[in-house]
Amino acid sequence: MPIRIESDGQTVTAYLSGEIDHHSAVAMRQAIDAHLVGGNATLLIMDFTDVTFMDSSGIGLVMGRYRQIKYNDGELHIQGTSPHIYKVMRIAGLERLAVIEKG
Amino acid sequence: MARQALNQTKITVLSRSSNESYARVAVAAFAAQLDPTVEELNDLKTAVSEAVTNCIVHAYPDTIGPIYITVSLFEEGLVQIRIRDKGRGIDDVKRAMEPLYTTGGEERAGLGFAVMESFTDKLRVRSTPYKGTTVTMEKVIRCR
Question: Do A21 and B118 touch (CB under 8 A)?
Answer without folding.
Answer: no
